[in-house]
User: Fold these one by one.
Assistant:
Number 1:
Amino acid sequence: MSTLLVPRSDVSEFRKRYRWMALVAFLAFAVVIGRCFHLQILRGTEYAQIAHENVIRRVTLPTTRGIVRDAYGRVLASSRPSFNVLLVPGRVMPSARPARRGVKGAEEQDSFSRVADTLRLNPDERQRLAARIRDACITDEDRSPCWRPILVREDLSRDIVAEIKQHASELPGVEVVSQPVRYYPYKNTGAHFLGYTSEINAETLAKYRPPGYENLTPEERQKINPLGYEMGDIVGATGVEHAWESYLRGQRGWEKRVVDARGRYRTGPEAERLLDAPSRQEPIPGRDLRLTIDMELEQAVERAMRPHAAGAVVVVDVRTGRLLALYSKPDFDPNDLAGGAGRERIREAFKKLYSDPLRPMLDKTMSGVFHPGSTFKPFSALAALEDKLIPPTDKERCDGYLTFGRRIFRCAHVHGKVDMREAIAQSCNIYFFKLAESVGMDRIARIANEFGLGQKTGIGVNPEAAGRIPTRSWYALRYKGQFRIGFTLNTSIGQGATTVTPLQLAMAYAALANGGTVYSPQLVRAVETSDGAVVQDFPPRVRQKAKISPENLARVNDALYAVVNDEKGTAFPVRDRTIEVAGKTGTAQTGYVNTGNDDPKKAWYLSRDHAWFAAYSPARAPEIAVVVLVEHGGSGPTVAAPIAMQIIKEYHRQKEARATKLAARETKRPDAKEAPEKRPAPGIAAPAPAPRDPAPSDPTGIPEPSPTEPPPREDDEP
Amino acid sequence: MMIRRDQARFFGMPRDSFDWTLFLTTCTIAVFGVINLYSATSVARAALSDIYIQQVYWLVLGGILGGVVAVIDYRHYERLGYLLYGVGIVFLVLVFILGKDIRGSSRWIAIGSFGFQPSEFTKLFLIIALAKYLHDDPRTEARGIKDLIVPAALTGIPTVLIMKQPDLGTALIHLCIFGTICMLTRIRWQTLVGIAVSVAIAIPLAWTYLMKDYQKQRVLVFLNPEENLLGSGWHAHHARVAIGNGGLKGQGFMQGTQNQFLFLPDQHSDFPFAVFAEDWGFLGCFVLVSLYAFLVLWAIRIAATAKDRFGAVLAIGVGALIFWHAVFNLGMVTGLLPVVGVTLPLFSAGGSSVVTIMLGIGLLMNVSMRRYWGSPTRTGLLLRD
């Protein structure tokens, strides 16, 4: 009993320690409370902000790219949905995830084999996909790739999409995402001016999103990147798609969504509570464009150019400078390059296009420069007339050649005595050599510049080439040696250093036709909203007025009329009596010399001349100017001129057909009765060989150049 | 007469000396813990949603066991001290033979469908063993290094075994309990300096040879908290965000977004305090941390009033157990300390942890009830020699 009443052991050793321990314990917990105060009160708002950002995700809402239409509302470029399939690895194949304490894996079933069946994967693809999923699921922590969707298939057929949607409940972790892909219904036709779209490249993106972009304020971002480019965005790469990108693109919208750590969206009142206003900004769809192009005419151009490998055609309204057709050959299908088909196919298409020696990616109407050949002669003639150096009625004698010093300059034929009108109509080089001798290079260059040759037209679509109209000073810079009169002679007939683009030539001929007004070529007529309201209408823009006296211009126009309608005119053989055309043929030497590296076939092709025909119609009251260039086509009168004729004829036929249709619509009531009566109307314009047509055997009126007959040469031979 | 009165009582429990303060404090924390677990596991984690029920079961079981422990006079534990300690060590060794492998370390022994973590209980056995040693070795003069050899060995054996599992957090708790109990005794200052120097040498050695890569990673993350937020810093960062998001008054029960939207990892085992802080804010945290502080201070008070050395060391040991668990866990969750897997007493889900704490509380109650000189008990009579 007593042992229990006395202390069994002495606790005095511990006595002094309790107070210290209590103090330490108190301080430790005080520090914890202090830390809580620091986190929750002092930095509370900051952390609340982070917490808010954690659960709120700003989802961008896609915008739709504007539609491009032609002058009559036909759709040239629009967007179609492409269905892509994404898989969330951890949900498609839960068995690939590491086993976890507390979480039973059995309740989730693998849907992988069903998914693979639905997507029609072959065994090889199936294996690769399974390996990809297993790699992603090495860990299944929050935010591991296990929960990040991976892209499996692009541009699925609608059947498979429907199947996936129908069995969605049995296919967990499979998402179908619709993504707009650019679509060009006319395929190759008009591909050059229309251009194509592609994914934004790293270089461009770096320009819009320089390093440190993420840390900028929204205002600064807006300034650097007004269109809000992001990685993977689709942008216009060439043509109208590129040049009018800022109109077509539209503006993305956004919406705030509540997400959890695994990126799953949460809905319901408890999630709504967290959303702060504004919670949504609607996307602004891109603007639609209405072009000046008439796609029906463009197709006619394409048909007319079909027999030839390469070339360019420009059709322009001489009264406004609006381009009705703009065609460059060979062309490409922008659908192959515009995504949708998948990266692999795009790469292949590019490889093919860029290895083609005929350069399909080059827009030859404005980026290609060529010697204009004889189509340049009217401007030389104008130079002589303007400065009254040569009376137009003076005749020069053409013996088929001319000697200057030791060099002989040749003509295509022996024309005998010709005046200016005949010289242009028959394309006599000798006359122009003599003319050039007295006029000089600089005067010719001045007139050519008056008509906009050798200068960029400012169409602003594809990278435009300027071409070149040489002057004495240009030669002085270029050649160290003495200036030779031969340079002037070559310039007068559009050879030597003289180069133009087909577009320039078309605008210059349009100016010849309309009395000297040089228009800026116009491709986009109006900008419209997606519901058709016109936002911006572009009136014709006059670039300059050529300072030419009307009588001189009339004289040249008369000569151009003679080219087609005079019996000795170079284009007389392809004349079509149903249409009135004035124009000028051209057969431009390419200056190709086979150095022995090219194989004979290629050398033969490259040594052939470029065939030109520049014309306007109707000759008395011109509406359109047409320039046809057939690269290495041979002779202008036999190759290029018939194409131009066909195009002009087609233009008039279509115009008439439209007028008939319009008339039919205006007299709406007797619709049924009127329609059959009107039907023959377009038939009038249909090809009907004129009695005096020199090629009666060819019902289409296109005389094919016969390869056995050497084409008549009308140019000099240096 | 006195004996008769005592014998009349149920198990000799001195009813008027029942420690209501200790009991109520414990119950309050436990209730908070269960409520918090309900919030922590309620959302979108179907597999976890019954955890709070299990926690209640464990609390009840722990309460019953704690009651039993409290009723038996602690002098029996003194008598059987080394035996209990030996049993604990045997279990630790068994872990290596029977252990279940979870996330690269084996800490568990499976009994039926339950996992049982011996290293949790070893803490108590260590406290009892140390208490017995100090009880049997009363000193009046300061202790030197020689006097620390036996307690160090007693601590070292389980600590090394636990380090081998590996379980850095529990091993650390063992060392801290040992340190705290050493501080209770009077040690020569030269010895303290010696120990400090050797620890300073030991830390780099442990870094190179003992610690696993993931453990090193955690320390590195602690030293550079803003770096690598998506990787190893994820836990610490999101715990801080959740606490900060609580603000003054909190988001409300089950309204904390960081927990509800799965941003908090391990929210029921290691980070329940972050859930609590987000739901209840600074006011809730203040109350909870105060409760822990009060519990620890009360344990010190019990030690101070204990009637013998064994009881005092026992109380200080259990107090240290609660203190270090709470401080390490709170420090880790609030970003004051590196992430070590130490549970928050009565808040973290887990059977072994809850039962251990309840047994510890039972021991405290035991010492507290028998603090008076004149309160012999029926079981006490057996000890009379």
Number 2:
Amino acid sequence: MFRKITIILVCFIFITSITILPFQSFASTLYSGFDGVDHYKSIGGCSFGDRYGVEYINKLNNALGSTFYNLFSYEDKYAWETDLTGTAANSVDFFAFAGHGVGPGITGNGNGAAHFFAQNSPDPPYHPSHSADAVNADWSEISWGSHAGSNCELKWATMYCCHFLQNYGEQTYYNRLKHIFDGVHLVMGFASGMYLNSYEGAEYGRFIAQGRSFKKAFFDAAWEYQTNHYPNTIARVMGAIKSENDSYWSYSMDPDPWLQRPDEYGYWDEVINPS
Amino acid sequence: MVIGMKLLIPANGGNAMKSKMKISKIIILILMLTFVSLATSGCGTQTKLPSLKLPEFGGFTPRNFEIQLNADVSKLPKYAVVYKIAPQKINRQTVEKLCKIFGVSSSAISIKKDGFVEKKQNGKELYIYTNTGFYEFSTQSMYHYSPGKIVPPKEECIKIAKSFAEKYNLLPKMYSYHIDVNYITFNPSFNKSIVTDRIVTFKPVVNGREILGPKFGITIGNEGEIEGVNNHLYNITLLKGKYALKSIDKVITELKSNKSQQWWIKPDEPDVEKIIVNKVEMEYYGDIGTSEKLGQPFVQPVYYLSGEVVFKNSKKGEFGVTIPAVDNRYIIGN
């Protein structure tokens, strides 16, 4: 009798593990990290102008509360390209950048990028040019997710800036964007210009903490705040289709890289103020 | 001599009297003019307003450029009213009504410390924020594509949304509404795009002018199903008096000096040579804050200028820029 029960229990655990675990896992401690830039012009001399990137990440971080344990929050001259291209972003589960984003026309190397003024150092000289490598974390330099290396954890990234996920209607740029996805589940961002409103960080963070999916939280917040006259604002979520409904408390297993499994990836757009 | 003196004194005194009368007349005239201008503008009775904070465009904003004004500005108002915002009231009856509309049980409702009511039931979620009067409802299908999902075309979605809002009296009567239809797509590959939802967005209009900021959205999904409702509207009350607006010359001076403005430029190019203003409109801007706390307390008039942009490399594009319209003398700190 005891043997039968043991066998049934072992079978139950085995079947449960092969049916549930590949699709769902539940969080223990999740970590967050942030990069935000305000003083592009007033400190960095970048003619793109100052923006409220720091306020956005601070409000986002506060609103997330205890949902994530915050590992780092780099601001202004301490926010660097290498935070995105090196180990920092990959060391956390949720990462967000807020500041300027630039298209391939600015970087000059055929890739979009997150833009900084510090050159991977808190000290001057800052921002030698818009296209300098050290002030642009571009698509070709970013590999996010568990396949990018050991101790790489990044699952969800948010790029609160213009153009970072824009392919300009060209397959070439679309293919270059795939390079980012090395096990990261979803990347939230914009495929157009956008407005920076720090309230959006507060709302997005609260929506995530309420347990909404990252995709829904990002779209709901964008609908609220990307509200002005700019025609065709596109809030975009790119990533693994199986991760579409990821929330902080229920999420998919890490996907294989996009370049290995192109059929398992896609993107979702929210088109606001369509012209 | 004495007589002469006596004669002289009244003669000089008469001139002084005339001067005094002239001065008195001028003072009376000035007082009358002041009274008339006060009566028409209401200056001095208006509440001073905080400086309007507009979210900044993430892309390039022009610096050191020429401005060519082609717009007819003769019909722009010289004065405008300002509104104070107030949350829509949420009480137990409102909560129960919303639960009933959205098909979630109203039993065991408790208002949480941070001011919201949360109900999750059978895949439906309803959040009601008691401090602001905002609420959000969604079903599991919202923004989600499943094979066979067919979303009605834009015009059909508008009809469905209007009918739903009217049936349950969801839109405050103090506004009329301008309707935009936003949409969500799922793109399984580069060239394939499927519409999964349409968000019929009601933007409040007061006295014929749209208020940018607050809005109400109804998300329509498969075969017209209501998949979501987002209420980010508040009530407004008129502030006493009319506020003088900036002249167009003042607006252009401020544009050139890069004071608080909200631009957009397409394409996103760095070097602007000239902007050609083809249209100037007056509208309103109303901050929404967050669902937990309303933002700036007033809905203020703004100018929206739009037209063409010419870049230094001779390329052309479009632009729009929003500028606070209330004369600076009514703004705190000026």
